[in-house]
Amino acid sequence: MELETSVYRPNVAVYDAPEGVEVRGRYDQIFAKILTREALSFVAELQREFRGHVRYAMECRREARRRYNSGGVPGFDPSTKFIRDGDWVCASVPPAVADRRVEITGPVERKMIINALNSGAKVFMADFEDALSPSWENLMRGHVNLKDAVDGSITFHDKSRNRVYKLNDQTAKLFVRPRGWHLPEAHILIDGEPATGCLVDFGIYFFHNYAKFRQTQGSGFGPFFYLPKMEHSREAKIWNSVFERAEKMAGIERGSIRATVLIETLPAVFQMNEILYELRDHSVGLNCGRWDYIFSYVKTFQSHPDRLLPDRVLVGMGQHFMRSYSDLLIRTCHRRGVHAMGGMAAQIPIRDDQKANEMALDLVRKDKLREVRAGHDGTWAAHPGLIPICVEAFTGHMGKNPNQIKSMKREDASAITEEDLLQIPRGVRTLEGLRLNTRVGIQYLAGWLTGSGSVPLYNLMEDAATAEISRVQNWQWIRYGVELDGDGLGVRVSKELFGRVVEEEMERIEKEVGKDKFKKGMYKEACKMFTKQCTAPELDDFLTLAVYNHIVAHHPINVSRL
């Protein structure tokens, strides 16, 4: 089906919400088919049952942050050593997702969903999180799109190209990534307070799609999910309880829902066994969310001037702490009988420069060969054009085997220590590094404020993780007045230097995007917000949380109907 377009008429209608639920987003007849009374009741049940657990988990995060800011460092928990040492395994991997050698990711935008499902990848991860700007329109249209994708009716008419997109007979398996525990959904109030964003994302999608998904995609299993931004196994335990609650509501077998957890925070790397243990009936592995992992390293050690990172372009998988994290993830997953997924290839094919394109693709090829040889069972790509290279790398090594769970145990990685995982990365800091952080951070935020959570910049597809690294690294460099030792000039970062860099980079951005786009876009607003974040006395936990209110659009409701 082609997505309908409806006209908003204020105060004509409201969503049929159950008691205690108030929908403050724009009314739309199409959205009303998603926001049914029954679906909203299910979301409200999840919110009421788990909000206390979520609040406690977030307070535990804050307490851990205070400990790190007072000089502490994360490490393995002695009280859960019995879990790490035990011989338990997770539930068997569903046959439908045994082979995940290449996965493509992207926002829940209609054309993207069709192209990704048709891309030749084994899995498409449809994203409500870092690749999506969570405006009301984006979120609700995303749910409409996913429902159409699951029932197979999704089409898209690209009027500019006069082309109709629809699904092929054979498509990728669909995974959905809801938002992290920390993000609210301000357009839906439950008992007078904003709903938890991920419970809205999960609840609405699950309610409408579990039956059809299990029939057409999961071969009796599913739906399938990716779970982001966890810092501790207590957060995985909440998700496990949410899954059990959903399975009970739907009357489906316990263990039907399956999820892969992104290990993308530094504290979580010390909790990988514990996270899998809590989700052992619902797990299909872990993934190396490496860009967010770098962001988390800086954030965790924000008050440790002895742990400053070099230019972010130098913090790759060649760094000892990154390689240790990847190796330990593979060892942990395979020991527990589940997938160990590799990281993102964010490159975009460069159509107007063949030599630059060949160099970029060669970097992707080498990265994917490194992953498969290390023992990863699959990898991520941001663009359909990268899928053949990724498939070639993994198939060339794995052959017809669907994964390496049993063949690459990586017993050598059992010797990895806390010191390996925390080793300070090597490299220099430069003025160009400061400039790149600033230029990318401002442009990404400008895109996010205008509805795009996945922004192409300098031949890479950037999501919120890159903007987060740029922000926290700038903040830390300014706070400690670091020397830009890679330039050999003895220059130290200060608010004054950063101010000049911002001015110059804004001029460069205007030249690169053109005066018309610069004027129409929200670059000046993004610049103010990004600058404020980088120079704040205290570091905000998340950029997207700090600026979320700028994209919230409450609409008046027809009080007479309540």
TrEMBL record:
UniProt-annotated location(s): Glyoxysome
Key word Ion transport present: no
Main location: other
InterPro entries, per the entry: Malate_synth_C_sf, Malate_synth_sf, Malate_synthA, Malate_synthase_CS, Malate_synthase_TIM, MS_C, MS_N, MS_N_TIM-barrel_dom
EC number: 2.3.3.9
Gene3D superfamilies: Malate synthase, domain 3 (3.20.20.360), Malate synthase, domain III (1.20.1220.12)
Pathway this chain belongs to: Carbohydrate metabolism; glyoxylate cycle; (S)-malate from isocitrate: step 2/2
Signal peptide: none
All residue ranges annotated as the Malate synthase TIM barrel domain in the record: 173-424
Malate synthase N-terminal domain boundaries: 19-81
Enzyme class, UniProt record, top EC level: transferase
Keyword Transferase: yes
Reaction(s) the record says it catalyses: glyoxylate + acetyl-CoA + H2O = (S)-malate + CoA + H(+)
Keywords, in A-Z order: Glyoxylate bypass, Glyoxysome, Peroxisome, Transferase, Tricarboxylic acid cycle
Domain Malate synthase C-terminal: 429-551
A Pfam family matched in the record: MS_C
PANTHER family: MALATE SYNTHASE, MALATE SYNTHASE 1-RELATED
Family: Belongs to the malate synthase family.
Name of this chain's protein: Malate synthase
Organism field: Camelina sativa (False flax)
